[in-house]
Amino acid sequence: MEDILVVYKEKPDLTDPILIEGLPGVGNVGKLAAEHLVDQLKAEKFVDIYSKYFPPQVLVDDSGIVKLVNNEMYYVKRDGAKHDMIVLIGDYQGLTPDGQYELADRMLKMAQELGVKMIFTLGGYGLGKLVEKPRVLGAVSHEDLVPKMKELGVTFSKGEPGSGIVGASGLLLGLGKVYGMRSVCLMGETSGYFVDPKAAQAVLEVLSKVLEVELDFSDLEDKAEQIDLLTSKLKDTEPQQEPRKEDLGYIG
Amino acid sequence: MEDILVVYKEKPDLTDPILIEGLPGVGNVGKLAAEHLVDQLKAEKFVDIYSKYFPPQVLVDDSGIVKLVNNEMYYVKRDGAKHDMIVLIGDYQGLTPDGQYELADRMLKMAQELGVKMIFTLGGYGLGKLVEKPRVLGAVSHEDLVPKMKELGVTFSKGEPGSGIVGASGLLLGLGKVYGMRSVCLMGETSGYFVDPKAAQAVLEVLSKVLEVELDFSDLEDKAEQIDLLTSKLKDTEPQQEPRKEDLGYIG
Amino acid sequence: MEDILVVYKEKPDLTDPILIEGLPGVGNVGKLAAEHLVDQLKAEKFVDIYSKYFPPQVLVDDSGIVKLVNNEMYYVKRDGAKHDMIVLIGDYQGLTPDGQYELADRMLKMAQELGVKMIFTLGGYGLGKLVEKPRVLGAVSHEDLVPKMKELGVTFSKGEPGSGIVGASGLLLGLGKVYGMRSVCLMGETSGYFVDPKAAQAVLEVLSKVLEVELDFSDLEDKAEQIDLLTSKLKDTEPQQEPRKEDLGYIG
Amino acid sequence: MEDILVVYKEKPDLTDPILIEGLPGVGNVGKLAAEHLVDQLKAEKFVDIYSKYFPPQVLVDDSGIVKLVNNEMYYVKRDGAKHDMIVLIGDYQGLTPDGQYELADRMLKMAQELGVKMIFTLGGYGLGKLVEKPRVLGAVSHEDLVPKMKELGVTFSKGEPGSGIVGASGLLLGLGKVYGMRSVCLMGETSGYFVDPKAAQAVLEVLSKVLEVELDFSDLEDKAEQIDLLTSKLKDTEPQQEPRKEDLGYIG
Fold this sequence. Notes:
homotetramer, Rossmann fold, 8-stranded mixed beta sheet, two-stranded antiparallel ribbon, 11 strands, globular
C-alpha cells in the first residue's frame, strides 16, 4: 500500500491560508486547542490521511461504527479576512521517528500545494508539576517573528524548552523551515499529568489574536472544571499524612 | 525478496464470496473459530502468503518436516448458495504496525480480485476475568449492518471495545471501508488468559446464521472441557485461603 | 546504499554443490561447526556479504586492522566427489525479522546461481541444562530425507523443537523449500549457556558422513576441554553450601 | 521525503582533502574534538544533512529560533598545505542500525565526490572508571597506517577495543574500506560518565600532528576544569562513610 494514503473530499480554494496543527501530545494541549478551533469556527473537513505509520487500529463509535485511525485537515473560509485557515487534527502522531518525518513532509507538501506560507503548531510544555496560570512559550522559524509574538503575550525564555520540540509540532517547524516556510510553535504550560483544557485555552487566546477571530471558551472552561474536580478528588483520596511530631516543636 | 510473497495453488471462481478472517489474537478466539470452519466445511486451501513481516521462523511437524510460517486462504464453494466463502487463517499476524498495514492491504486486494464485497473478522474481546457465558460484541463498517447483526444476537454496547480494535481484525474493517468494502467484526468475550474454544463457539454460532451453514461444535466443546479441566486444576493447586473470621458471622 | 552489498572475489565453477550454513546462534554450535569445516577442508573464501541488516560495527583484529562485520561464503572443490561444497559463516545474523528474510532470500538466490539444490543448516538446540552426550536433532524440507538422516544417527523427536526453528537455520530451510530446494537442519543439543564445541562436534560427525569427508576433531576437543575446565571452575567458586543441621538427622 | 536530504550552500573545490568525523558518542569525545577543530580553524559550513534516521526533533536556540536536528560538513582551505580538510559534526547519529549504514554510505559518497581518500574518525574509548592521563587508541583500515600512527603516539593494543567500534566512527572506516578509502579511528580513553574535554584534547594532539596544524587548547582545558570541579563536588556530596571499626585495628 502507499505509505501515506491521502483521500481528498475536496480541494478547497483558499486565500493565503495559515496552517494550524494540533495533534496528540503532552497534556493533549494541541489536540484540545485545534479541535476547539474546528468546533468554534465550524471548519469543514476536506481530507483524510491514513498511514502505515499510525497504529494498526480502528476506533469504534457509540453506534458500533468503525473508523480507521487517521489525521484530518479542515478548512475555514473567511470572507474579507486576509487569511483562510487549515486545521490539522488527528487520532495519533506517527509511531516511529521515520514515520514522523514522512508524515510531516507529506503534510507540508499538501499545505504548500494549498498555498500555505505560515504555520502555527500547538502543543504542551510539560512541567511535571501543577500549573496555576499557564504561560504560553514560543519558538519560531525566523527571528522577526519573535517580537511579533512577544507583543501577543508569548514568552520566549532562554533555555526553554531545553530539550527542543519533539514530534509533529517540532518537525513542521524545522522541516518547514528547510522548505522555506515561516512558522511558530505555541506551547501551553501544563503539568503533563492530565489532558489540560486550561493550557489549551491559554494557547488559543494567543492564537485568536493572531487569527483575529473571537472564540467562546465556555466548553474548554467546563472541561477544565471537570478536570479540576477530578484532580482535587484524587487528592482527597490520598492517605492524609499525619503531621510528624518533630515538625511540631511548639507542641512540646 | 518481495515484502509479501503470494503463492497460488489455484485461483478459484467464486460466487459473491464472503471473506472470513481468523488470525491469532486474544484467547486465539478468531483463529480457533476460523480453523473450525475450515475443518467443518472441508474448505480447500488455494493460496500461501509468506512475508518478511512474519517472524523469521519455521514450524516443525510431528514427522520433522518444516513449514515456513505463513497465512493461508481457503475457499468453500456452495451449490445454490448466494455466497461462497473465503477463510483466512495463519500462524501469525504481522510483527510491526507497518507490516500489519501492508498485509491487510494485500489481503484486501486479493479478496477484491476474487470478488469479495463483504468481510467478517473474528476475534476475542478480553475481559481480564473468567466469563461464564460469553456475549458476542460487534463492530461494523456501515450503519445498516447494526440492526441486522443485532437480530442475530450480536451485542452493540456503547464504549465497548473502548480502545478500538487492534490488528488484522480491525484493519480489514477500517482499511476495507476506505476501499469501499462492507464488514463486521465479531468479538467473543474471553478472559484472555487461555485459548478459549467457548468464545470461538459463541462467535461461530452467530456466523453460522449469517452464512446459513450448520456446524457441529463437538470438537470445540471437547476442547473447552479440556481447558475447563486445566483451569480448575490450576485453581486446586492454588494455596487454599482459610475463610476469614469476619466472613463467618453465623459461627460467632 | 544497497540493502545487501555482495562483493565477489571470484565466482567458482562448482559440481552440484551443497550449501552448509553455520551462523551465530544458540551455543554458537552452527558457527563453531562451520568454521571448523572451513579450517579442516581449507575452504576458499569467494564472497563477502555486507548489509545494513547487520550491526553498524567494525571488528578490530590484533594488529589494529578493522573489518566491517559481514557474512562470508567459502567453497571446497573436491576432485571426483559428487558434490562440491559452499560454507556460509559470519559475524552476525540479521538484526531484525525483515532483515533475516532479506538476507536468507539473497543467500538462497546466490546459492541457486551457483547450482545449489541441497542445503544443510547447522545449529544448537538449547535445553537449558548441561548435556553429557548431545544428540543431533533433525528437521527436513521433504519427507524422504527423514529415513536417510535417521540412518546417519540423527534423531527425529515428536514435539522437538516445539517452538520451531528461528533465524537463518530455519529460514534457509523454509524459504528454500518455497523456492524448490531440499534441505536438512542439524541441531546439536546444548545447554545454551556457553559456546559448545561438543555439540558442534556431534553435528559435524553426522555431516561428515553425509559429505563423505574425514574431519580431525582435536581442535574442537581442545576447546571443549577448556570450556569444561571453565565451567567446573565456576562451580568451584560458587559459595559452598554448608549442610543445614535439619538435613543431618543422624547427628541429632 | 528523501531518506537523507542534503542541502549544499556551496560545493568547495578542495586539494586532496582529509575527512575528519566527530559525532556524538561515548563521552562526546569525537564531537568535542571536531567542534573544537571547526572553531580553531574557522572552518566554513558548506552543507546541511537532514534525515528521517535522526530524531524527529528541533532544537531551540537562546533567541527562540528552531533548527531541525542535522549533521553538517565544514571545510578548511589551507594555502600551500598538501591537504585541505572536511569536518563532519552533528547533533545526533542515526537512530537505527540501517539508518547508521545509510548515513555512513551517503557521507562517504559525498566525501568521495569532493576528492576524499583519507578519513580520520574521532571517538571515545569508555573505560568505566576515571582516567588520569588518557591514551589515544587507534584502529586503521590498512596495515601500513599502524607504524605511522604509532610514531605520533597512538597506542595499538591487542584486544582493545574488544567489542569493535560501533556507530559512525566504525562504519566510516569499515564501509570506507569496502569502497577503497584509507582511514584511521582515534579513540581517546574516557570514563564515559561525563563529556570529556580531556580525552578530546588527547585525540586532537595526535590529529594536529597528522594535519600539521597548531591548535590552542585553552577552551578545552577550561571545560575540563569545569568538569573536574563538578565531579569533585559530586564526590563531596556523597555520604561520607564512617570508618568501620574492624578496619581500625590499631585503635582496638
